[in-house]
Amino acid sequence: MPVPVSQMWTVASYVIGQKLAGRKQYPLVLMLEPLFRCNLACAGCGKIQYPAHILKKDLSPEECFRAVDECGAPMVSIPGGEPLMHPEIDKIVEGLVARKKYIYLCTNALLLKEKIHLFKPSKYLTFSVHLDGQREEHDLAVCREGGYDIAVAAVKEALKRGFRVTTNTTLFDGANPKSVRAFFDEMMDLGVEGMMLSPGYSYDKAPDQKHFLGRARTRRMFRAILSNRKKRWQFNLSPLFLEFLMGKRTYPCTPWGMPTYNVFGWQKPCYLLQDGYAESFKELLETTEWQNYGTESGNPACANCMVHSGYEASAVNATFSSLGGFLATVKATLFSSYKDEEALRLLDEPQAAVNPLIQIAPTQSAHHDLQETRA
Ligand code: SF4
């Protein structure tokens, strides 16, 4: 079971409550970024390129609590930056646990062993450890030799102490589907509760602009990875979102489903784009021109996007919007192994070379080389 029953019940009753109240736009997960500083400099990350005075800023615990209370989402994801570098991260987590929020603390785990004594195991707290594949692939993606071994040692320590642990994996162009499947086996052997996956998104600020996937390539890669699925693989994601990644379903983006709050305020419209900030969640909902976002809007910034922060809330909404959606979710959870001969063949296709272990300087032309495969 990838998610405890109490969490599933909390989320299901929350979504049904929103629907019964007639709310069209409701948040599912708050993306709370209490800082942008990080102890890694990954080539695919757009969060650490801010000037020093911004990187020095932290959200206070009180600012975090105000945002969480205002938003009302039942789950809070804490990315960053590296949240374990926040001087009061233990207070933030403690306050959110007291509010009975299900927290995913997203960490590269470099500091986890050192700081784990600051936290108490709870069904509300999950360490979501950033691992982008097997040892070589992960170390390349995070531009740090030895990063995989440190993260795996921290996962073992957290599990030993009784914490909930998941992994979160971003897959870029050049990812080897066979290796990703072997990585799933490794993580299940380690004993993590579940795995989260997302295709990379081309942040304007990310140093490496050449390795982001277009939509057609994303579907092809996830079809290869997620078809002919092993029963032991547990994913901490909506099963319909996984089908969306495999190209079996289409959904519009639901950017308000996972709103972002950080040192600038409420980010418009989503975790990935920065088209201004609102001072309150209400203002975010009321003043963002939502029709200008999502793949179907024609906005080039959204053309290739299939990331979970835009589309997983759409999949969860689909589960609770009709009996068909609910039954499809049950079927996907309990009965589907996604047998697919063509996908087996895709596993043997030659792979593009992976990106080198360096920070690549951004260039204008590289940005415009992005393949647009809007569908
Ligand atoms: S499609 Fe992606 S980039 Fe565009 S609004 Fe949705 S989540 Fe943001």
Please sum up the structure shown:
This protein is 38% helix and 13% strand. The protein has 375 residues and is α/β, with parallel strands linked by helices.
Report what the structure shows.
With 375 residues, this protein is α/β, with parallel strands linked by helices. The chain has 15 helices and nine strands. It has a nine-stranded mixed beta sheet. Strand 5 (164-171), helix 8 and strand 6 (194-199) form a beta-alpha-beta unit. Helix 3 runs parallel beside helix 4 and helix 9 (215-226) packs across helix 14. The longest helix has 16 residues, at 5-20. The radius of gyration is 19 Å and the shape is globular. It starts with a helix and ends in a 7-residue tail after the last helix. Residues 355-375 have low confidence and may be disordered. The structure holds iron/sulfur cluster. Iron/sulfur cluster is lined by residues 253, 255, 269-270, 272-273, 293-295, 301-302, 305, 307, 309-310.
